[in-house]
From TrEMBL:
NCBIfam families (UniProt xref): yjeF_cterm
Family statement drawn from the similarity comment of this UniProt entry: Belongs to the NnrE/AIBP family.
Lineage of producing organism: Bacteria, Bacillati, Actinomycetota, Actinomycetes, Propionibacteriales
Protein task: Catalyzes the dehydration of the S-form of NAD(P)HX at the expense of ADP, which is converted to AMP. Together with NAD(P)HX epimerase, which catalyzes the epimerization of the S- and R-forms, the enzyme allows the repair of both epimers of NAD(P)HX, a damaged form of NAD(P)H that is a result of enzymatic or heat-dependent hydration.
EC code: 4.2.1.136, 5.1.99.6
Alphabetized InterPro entries for the sequence: CARKD, Nnr, Ribokinase-like, YjeF_N_dom, YjeF_N_dom_sf
Record text on cofactor binding: Binds 1 potassium ion per subunit.
Record protein name field: Bifunctional NAD(P)H-hydrate repair enzyme
Binding site for (6S)-NADPHX: 61-65, 135-141, 162, 259, 308, 350, 417
Organism of derivation: Nocardioides panacisoli
Residues holding AMP: 387-391, 416
Residue ranges of domain YjeF C-terminal in the record: 224-473
Length: 479
């Protein structure tokens, strides 16, 4: 597994690259990158001999990587054709490809016509496109010629060199047309665009090639299973239920009783010592039918507030704030988030809720999730978990964790209520808001994936799968 995945900025990568280049012979890094790329393409094609490869080559070193990798593939028996998108492609790379028997052509400068004869839109001629148009030196978007070449090759599987060309590498935004990859082979470290949507969705499967860069800690990262395992609270040998932490749920209402039940079911994942429910009597009865161990009002170490609270959201938030404990603020309670200012809080909006909080449109949040999650974390001085395909957990100091577990089946009503409950249990267990939100999102996504192995899921299935996921992380108590 290898521990937390870090995503560095272009500036950090450039600095590390300069430092390393000063110590190794010229061209070493590009050779390391090119070999890693070539072998990833061989893996992708399950071989090289007889495969037909087209390289899209821009003017920079990204194109150089593609050309040298093309030379490796050509030497292993692939038919390799490079389409140069500019007059100034990497000279050493062009020579290497030619020397290995590859073909090199300049695209029509208008971009209207690709340099092949007789190929049609579906391009049966090629097994893979290697996108070496631009990497970390690119501006977002594609020049007309590059876009036309990609159009021409639509339908052919695409392996991107370092990044899918055209995405904004440091923000994960995709304001302009861009390549969409099946696989992205990146070098030295992940970049933000590999983790953060919408760009991450265009990167496909990301493979990292180690080229020996020495990098500082990154602000953007993704926890792996072992990182989550290290964070999870474990009962001490002489634990009792109160020392493990009590999580209280103030959610659900006569209008939305299920939200209370689902929040409790997330909180009752077994990671806290006890769960309390405080709220509507009918919801309380419903909760009791399914979770007889849940008790009523009393002292807690964390509150979960707001899912399905409807008109009662403000009141329940005020009541929860009367206790000086960390809390999860979700759904209806997000409208009153200012009441919680200065307290240890995890806010759990989806894109629509975050848009309302920040006074913008939902689509703006979806287009720039990293920017908006960070803005909200700073504005509310709180940890903000922006829910979505790749949920983001932003801290007020600018750090962000990206959640990579989950399945599209998780887009199901009530899934967010379960998530709030899990995070509450972790807060009660003593995790910081940042750790509780990121570990909670990881467990929640992994539970959905586990539950979805048996078919489509509803929110309750996610809650029921949580203990099994925690079990896979070796959460047995010490001793
Ligand atoms: N860092 C490392 O450790 C290592 C890095 N390596 C590799 O180097 C890559 C970075 O190479 P790089 O710096 O030469 O920049 P790169 O991304 O090829 O393109 C920049 C050029 O493209 C152009 N251009 C810009 N925007 C554009 C657009 N939207 N659409 C079209 N064209 C556009 C612009 O040229 P212009 O035509 O404007 O003069 C600009 O000069 C990196 O991603 C990795 O693959 C590895 O080899 C080894 C280790
Ligand atoms: N396409 C997707 N892939 C993976 N997870 C998703 C996707 N869409 C939504 N989710 C997750 O599903 C949950 C939905 O929560 P939420 O939007 O609050 O729904 P609800 O209000 O119905 O509970 C969140 O944890 C979110 O991260
Ligand atoms: K690229």
């Amino acid at each position: 597994m290898g521990g937390v995945i870090q995503a560095h900025t272009v500036e950090q990568v450039r600095a590390a690259e300069a430092e390393l280049m000063a110590r190794v012979p010229a061209g070493t890094l590009m050779q390391r990158a090119a070999y890693g790329l070539a072998y990833a393409v061989v893996d992708f094609l399950a071989g090289a001999y007889g495969r037909r490869v087209v390289l899209l080559v821009g003017s920079g070193d990204n194109g150089g990587d593609a050309l040298y990798a093309g030379a490796v593939l050509a030497r292993r028996g692939a038919y390799v054709e490079a389409w140069l998108l500019s007059d100034s492609a990497h000279k050493g790379g062009v020579a290497a490809l030619r020397g290995a028997g590859g073909r090199v052509r300049r695209t029509e400068p208008t971009g209207r016509r690709a340099p092949t004869d007789g190929s049609t839109g579906s391009n049966p001629r090629f097994d893979v496109v290697v996108d070496g148009i631009v990497g970390i030196g690119g501006r977002p978007g594609l020049r007309e010629e590059a876009a036309a070449a990609l159009d021409r090759l639509a339908g052919v599987p695409l392996v991107a060199v370092d990044t899918p060309s055209g995405v904004d590498v440091d923000t994960g935004e995709t304001p302009e047309p861009h390549a969409v990859a099946d696989v992205t082979v990146t070098f030295g470290t992940h970049k933000v665009a590999h983790l953060v949507d919408p760009a991450a969705g265009a990167a496909g499967v990301v493979q990292l090639v180690d080229i020996g860069l020495d990098l500082p800690p990154a602000d953007v990262e993704a926890l792996q299973a072992e990182d989550v395992a290290a964070l999870l609270p474990r009962p001490h040998p002489d634990a009792q239920k109160y020392t493990r932490g009590v999580v209280g749920v103030r959610a659900g209402s006569a209008t939305y009783p299920g939200a209370g039940l689902l929040s409790v079911s997330g909180a009752a994942c077994g990671l806290a010592g006890m769960v309390r429910y405080v709220g509507d009597q009918d919801v309380h009865d419903l909760v009791h039918e399914q979770h007889p161990e849940v008790v009523g009002a009393g002292r807690v170490q964390a509150w979960v507030v707001g899912s399905g609270s409807a008109d009662g959201a403000e009141g329940t938030l005020r009541e929860a704030l009367a206790d000086d404990v960390p809390l999860v603020v979700d759904a209806d309670a997000l409208a009153y988030v200012d009441l919680a200012h200065g307290r240890p809080v995890v806010l759990t909006p989806h894109a629509g809720e975050l848009a309302t909080m920040l006074g913008c449109e939902r689509v703006e949040v979806e287009d720039r999730p990293l920017h908006h999650a960070r803005t909200a974390a700073e504005r509310y001085d709180a940890v903000v978990l922006l829910k979505g395909r790749r949920s983001l957990v932003a801290a007020p100091d600018g750090r962000v964790r990206v959640n990579r577990t989950g399945t599209p089946w998780l887009a199901t009503a009530g899934a967010g209520d379960v998530l709030g409950g899990v995070i509450g249990a972790l807060l009660a267990g003593g995790l910081t808001p940042y750790d509780a939100a990121s570990a909670g999102a990881w467990l929640h996504g992994a539970a959905a994936t586990l539950a979805a192995q048996d078919g489509p899921i509803v929110a309750g299935d996610v809650a029921r799968a949580l203990p099994a996921v925690a079990g896979t992380l070796h959460t047995s108590p010490p001793g």
